Structure prediction request, 385 residues.
Amino acid sequence: MTTATLPAASELPAAAPQASNSLDPYLDHLLQRLTAAESTNVGYPRATDIDYTPLAPFLRLMLNNTGDPRVDPIYPLHTMDVERRVLAWTAELFRAEPGWTGYLATGSTEGTLHNLRLARSALVDAVVYHSHAAHYSAGKAARILGLPAVAVNATAHGEMDYADLRAKAAKSRSRAAIVVATIGTTMTEAIDSVPDIHRSLDSAGVARRWIHADAALAGAPAALTGRHDFDLAPGGADSVTVSGHKWWGTPVPCAVTLAGRLPLKTGRLISYIGNHDTTIAGSRSGLAAVLLWHAISTIPMPEQRRRVQQARDTAAYACRQLTSIGWPNWRNPDAVTVMLRPLPEPLAKRWPLPVEQDQSHLICMPGITTNHVDRLVADLQGAHR
Ligand SMILES: *Cc1c(COP(=O)(O)O)cnc(C)c1O
Prediction:
């Protein structure tokens, strides 16, 4: 890991006088580097099959959705109506019951923080439980909120160890439990079972509970293809968060966060904005709502499901091709994430894949094709020889 130092002001290129539609040479160069990098980005999840460029005219406007999305703020350049459509679509996907609330956050990290805050205000004296394979944002949210956090073991494939949850929760059975269930762990895309979490808490004697489903990546493909045990219907989770920049690849990070209950009243009314303060962020991106609505509205449901199947097929293809050259690999059921032995040094530069505990992965997001897989496998075969 290298740490870049910030350039001194004197080292920065002087802003070139420019025509209105031309880029500064520095940014132009940057754009070329980023565009080139995209062709080998298979390590981090971002769908690349959706064209957002028709939305360029919206860049002329400063779109700001301040406050609660249920209310139109005074500032007229908001897209709260679009945000409400995005929320309603997602609430239906996650089978939320009437009375749900939510908003479009900056990402799943903020979504988890928001929901743990809701849980804290609903439950006195709570302990947060998350597995060792959970995203680092779960522990971070607990620290920010001053909540004690207990890390539960995970299996070799990354799923929560429910017996360990039961044992650890039983030690604090008089306290409430806030459990972060990961729907698609960051490294192996394992899905924690919310029904098993309920059963573990039942047998630990913990009645007061809130289960938050951190479904940043895999929540969308799972729900789109009929896996619903983590959603907001009875017996499922109390809150759920799904990122927009992962499964739908919005060029601006964002996440839909939804909760099935309404413990935080309406939040303080801020007369300056003419709205209630129910979100973590103040100013929120109105552009993100437009981008996400574009992804949802231009892809009809059957096509949404076909995207999932195609990504899974590509992942299965990657496993077969890696196996055919003798490179160790595996994947969780239905995952688009393929676990593999880390790439040798020279290749790791061209294909920047994360490595954790001697395992690496590639993620076959929509837009990643068998052609990407073939190029990677050919490179690997060349280096291997
Ligand atoms: C990516 C990810 C996050 C973080 O989401 P951001 O939207 O980047 O904040 C949280 N949890 C899981 C499981 C993730 O994969």
